[in-house]
Design goal:
Layout lengths: L1 E6 L6 H4 L2 H8 L4 E6 L11 E2 L9 E2 L1 H11 L6 E11 L2 H8 L3 E6 L4 E2 L1 H6 L3 E4 L9 H12 L11 H4 L17 E2 L2 E2 L9 H19 L1 H4 L6 H12 L2
Parallel strand pairs: 1-2, 1-6, 4-7, 5-6, 5-8
Antiparallel strand pairs: 3-4, 9-10
Helix pairs in contact: 4-6, 8-10
């Protein structure tokens, strides 16, 4: 996968892209990450913003440098061009899975008051928000989305089952996890996890997944199709309250 990021502050990405899973993904050839300075594509002395027509507070990103930058990257292909924006679609694990199937992505990170509307109307394919709050710019939001997408690419994570079992991948929250030592300060790992009985372990994990989702994010259960077995477990959990 090729990922290009348009930003006014490219150095912000250096630490994120050169460590941990991001670095390993590039070394494995799973992804190519490039950050482009929007200012290099401005028509007038690197000016990338201007006052809004009609007046108002703040500055608005001009269309010319954004269009010029994207068109310099996109010659023949038609990648998904993603605008990081608090007005966009709420980002989810399902969206990450959808984007991970693409061959090329372009992220646009804004700053200031907003974007010239013609960027939305005639250039981007997706608008994404990571939550109902406002950041100084789109860089941190883009890093979040890119990290979520890259870790889903084949061969990036050491264990192929890891992304499948993650919270939200199944539509629910992940079950509790434990590691050695089996006892720490008097707190013991549940016996079932050290029993060696994989069937019982799987059953425990399913029950814990449903319990944790019911307790912390019951709204998620309304969005997925539950099996009869899962419905029975949830009913029993509710009766225990």
């Amino acid at each position: 996968m090729n990922i290009n990021v348009l930003s006014l502050f490219p150095p912000m990405f250096e630490g994120v892209f050169q460590h941990s899973i991001m670095k390993k993904a590039q070394e494995k050839g799973a992804v190519s990450l490039t950050v482009v300075d929007i200012r290099e594509f401005a028509d007038n002395k690197r000016q990338v913003d201007d006052y809004p027509f009609g007046g108002g507070a703040g500055m608005v990103l001009k269309p010319e440098p954004i269009f010029n930058a994207v068109e310099s990257l996109v010659q023949k292909s038609k990648p998904r061009v993603i605008l990081m924006c608090p007005q966009g679609e709420r980002f989810t694990q399902q969206k990450a899975e959808e984007l991970s199937a693409e061959q090329e992505l372009v992220f646009i990170c804004g700053h200031y008051e907003g974007y010239d509307e013609r960027i939305r109307e005639h250039l981007v394919t997706d608008e994404i928000s990571i939550g109902d709050f406002v950041l100084t710019g789109g860089e941190l939001a883009a890093m979040t989305v890119i990290d979520s997408v890259v870790r889903l690419l084949p061969g990036v994570l050491g264990n192929a089952d890891s992304p499948v079992r993650d919270s939200f991948s199944t539509g629910m929250l992940e079950h509790p996890q434990y590691t050695r030592p089996a006892e720490f300060r008097g707190w013991k790992v549940p016996d079932v996890l050290t029993s060696g009985n994989h069937g019982k372990v799987d059953q425990w994990r399913e029950e814990q997944t449903l319990k944790r989702t019911l307790e912390r994010r019951p709204d998620l259960l309304d969005k997925i199709e539950l099996s009869d077995k899962q419905k029975k477990i949830i009913a029993e959990l509710r009766n225990q309250k």
